[in-house]
Protein 1
Amino acid sequence: MKKLDSLLLKVFLYGLPLIIVLAVFSYLHDSGIIASAYSYLEHLYNFAGFMFALWMLLSVYLGIRLMFSGTFREKVLTRITFIKERDEREVMLTGKAAKTTMLTTLAILIFFFCLSCFQVSVYRIPPENAVHGKTGVISIGLNFSLLENPPQDAPQTSGQKQNIFTYSGLPVSNSAVILGVIAWQIIAYNYSMRRLMK
């Protein structure tokens, strides 16, 4: 199993540049920049789709192996995060840096969770609907759901409300948040490690 995991990991890493090139080609083909008048371009386009499917299956397999195989996780993620434990002192410093990183990441995730739940809307209502002569309204709410809700149409502001400001959750996608947290983990760990080594 170790040899198979190692082989699949190499295929995944060395195949990444090919996948990027095929993604660019597919984008150009879909947008019509590259004409598909030649049959070999259609074959290449179909081959790109097949390669994407294989690469995605390989990504899922490696992700599952990283979660459930301690030795595979240790081998791969220590290289990605630049963890080096050459003696007892570095092992102790690694533990401190990991604790600091985990706590700061948890703080960031709690902050993101709060921002994703809050909803704020500032708008003006027509003078005939004014409350005590005030036409400015601030609406504050919470939105929490375990499943992703389909996007709802924004309320019509013409005639009834004049929208000034609306905040209904994080403006970035889930993928961007996850990628940011991964990058933060690596950067925060290495920064903490360097600070502790001094």
Protein 2
Amino acid sequence: MKVFYEEILVGEVVTNRSLTVDEALELIGFNEEKFIEENGFDDVDYNDFKLVY
């Protein structure tokens, strides 16, 4: 599965089950502060994450 924030690919997870966004972000080692800095955002809205299987 691919984890997107808006249209930005954040990471990929290989799984054989459904995951929540929080679980997927944990598995890819998501660093919110680094992501915000690298993409020039002020904040992250967790409602803008999506999982694509």
Protein 3
Amino acid sequence: MEEQTIQEKIKTAFIDAVSTSSEFTGEEIKEIDEIISSTQKADKMAENLLKTIGGAADEDT
């Protein structure tokens, strides 16, 4: 099994915390999860693009 990145661990912990909170509805939790997931996808796309053009991808890029 592949080890989670720090971003994935944070997302999982955050969604778990939000899911158990009475402050958010089921629909809001779903929206939050989608927003976080789309942000991660954009980060991955940018990282892959940078690697493709020969750059070194890191958190400061």
Protein 4
Amino acid sequence: MPTIRFARLRFEKKLSHYTDERDAIKRRKELLLNVIDYHTNVNSLLMGTESQEKINLGEWYFGDVDSEESNVISARIGKAKDDTQTLPDEDVEGFVKRDTEDADVAFFIIDLKNSVMAYEYNTKIGKKAPYRILRDAFNSYYDGEEEIRVSPLVDKQEVRNEISSLSFISEIKFSNLQPTNPDHTPRSKPMDDFLQESKINRLHFRGVSDQRKNNPEGISLEGSPLLDGGLSLAEEGYGSATVEGKIPSGETKKVKTGEIPIESSAELGDSDTANRKRLLEEIRDALDELDD
């Protein structure tokens, strides 16, 4: 059964958005569909980006694009690669080598209302490639006029379990924390309110604590609604967080939200309509998990 992973798409605010008369969801949908298109030369867009090395794996495509539902885009991402196969041949009554072309593909949907992408993870495409290739192709296509950032949705329970194993927290770091869209959870509210009220689009933060006798546990993460809210924002896909400290044995340990994604399993079949419905359900379940 396919493994499903999730990522949050965050659209950067641009001055043109304030004069654009289109609804935000409609605008984002149209922007994405200019890139998620079979005729897009994905490999050329990836040149000079973080995904440039993916070009060596084959020719990347978007295909089977469907955007009939107002708030949903579904498609497949795939890479075509040349291969040589040894096949039986009646003419020679033996085996011949023939050049063939094959493609590895993964189905995905984008829930525009929640700005969440759910995608089929398989080893031939890569665990992060679907959202990273979309991000880099999109940003290259618009060349600064539009920009998206993408972060995985995080297994919050696993992150908290990993952090609880630290006997001393020496450092916490947030990268690219952004206000929520469409809404925060109760736990991320303090940091989300802070960002909204301070008119901050992106926040980078690093806090360090030295271990002393009067500070045996280091940084008080859960004791600070703001820090805990920042970690929750990262778990919900609005940036990333790294918590570093020591376990009881004295060894240093780092907990990185981007390395602990939410995963689920879903039976995908030949019907893209049924696949879309199933992945929308998986997105709702993932968001409910973050809301707990």
